[in-house]
């Protein structure tokens, strides 16, 4: 393959996966990100294989790969936006919340159509999929995490305080071996966390449909009367979420 020359400007991220660098391609002047993977040869990494399959407007595009990979450089992340809003003690304008969350819904719907589970949805990148998307949605509205927790148990208690106690059926769906697990009985209070003055009814409705314990089973926004009871507490599919009235302004 052809040789590509690039100039590393600075490191912009790091973690257990490796490091990400802000880079300029010498031949074109294009600004990209290079992700350097700390690959253990004993472990198969499917990331490159998956990235080669993805072609979607709301998902970072893989341009080249060799021992590491080059991606389009994104100068600002949702996490950075949230931090800026928090420092200024202001809330993100609702239109920006709609734009960010709508694009995430479309991107997740595309990934799901290919049988790919992202597994790491968070403000820094852009738990599991729709639930995590709901958490990001809430953080954009609040300019702070909805479920701050210092441990697994603390995290669970914070979730229950806001979403309420899962029913026996929901516990069984999560893990059939632990249906007799005792949890404090708490009523949902999501509406109290997001009063109408700061969160329109459509946003609260969408948030409630995302932050439910039961995962989606191709749930429609308008289930038939016979199915309504069965699906009312099930989490939305990403593309069903993208069709929610909250995003009507974008269409």
Helix and strand topology:
Elements: E1 6-15, E2 18-25, E3 31-37, H1 47-51, E4 62-65, E5 69-72, H2 78-88, H3 94-113, H4 129-142, H5 152-163, H6 168-174, H7 190-193, H8 201-210, H9 228-231, H10 238-242
Antiparallel strand pairs: 1-2, 2-3, 3-5, 4-5
Helix pairs in contact: 3-4, 4-8
Strand content bin: 5-15%
Helix-strand topology string: EEEHEEHHHHHHHHH
Q: Can you give the helix content as a percent range?
A: 25-40%
Q: Major sheet: order of its strands? A: 1-2-3-5-4
Tell me the total number of β-strands. 5
Alpha carbon gyration radius: 20 Å
Low-confidence stretches: 224-232
Silhouette? globular
Biggest pleated sheet: 5 strands, antiparallel
Domain count, please report it. 2
Structural class: alpha+beta
Assign the CATH class of the largest domain: Mainly Alpha
CATH superfamily of the largest domain: Transferase(Phosphotransferase) domain 1
In the CATH hierarchy, the third-tier topology of the largest domain is known as Transferase(Phosphotransferase), domain 1
Architecture of the largest domain in CATH? Orthogonal Bundle
Spatial gap, N to C terminus: 42 Å
Number of continuous helical runs: 10
Provide the residue-averaged pLDDT: 80
């Amino acid at each position: 393959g052809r040789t590509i020359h690039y100039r590393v400007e600075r490191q912009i991220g790091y973690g257990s996966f490796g490091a990400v660098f802000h880079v300029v391609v010498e031949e074109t002047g294009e600004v990209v990100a290079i992700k350097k993977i700390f690959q253990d040869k004993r472990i198969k990494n499917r990331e490159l294989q998956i990235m080669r399959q993805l072609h979607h407007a709301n998902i970072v595009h893989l341009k080249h790969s060799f021992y590491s990979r080059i991606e389009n450089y994104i100068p600002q992340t949702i996490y950075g936006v949230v931090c800026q809003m928090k420092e200024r003690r202001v809330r993100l304008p609702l239109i920006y919340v709609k734009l960010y969350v709508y694009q995430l819904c479309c991107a997740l719907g595309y990934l799901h159509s290919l049988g790919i589970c992202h597994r790491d949805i968070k403000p820094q990148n852009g738990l599991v999929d729709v639930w995590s998307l709901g958490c990001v949605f809430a953080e954009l509205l609040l300019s702070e995490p909805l479920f701050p927790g210092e441990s697994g148990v603390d995290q669970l208690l914070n979730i229950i305080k806001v979403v309420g106690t899962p029913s026996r059926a929901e516990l069984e769906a999560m893990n059939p071996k632990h249906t007799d697990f005792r949890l404090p009985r708490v009523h949902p209070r999501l509406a109290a966390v997001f009063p109408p003055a700061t969160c329109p009814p459509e946003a609260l409705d969408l948030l409630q449909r995302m932050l439910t314990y039961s995962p989606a089973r191709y749930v429609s926004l308008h289930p038939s009367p016979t199915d309504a009871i069965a699906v009312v507490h099930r989490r939305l599919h990403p593309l069903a979420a993208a069709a929610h009235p909250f995003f009507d302004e974008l269409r």
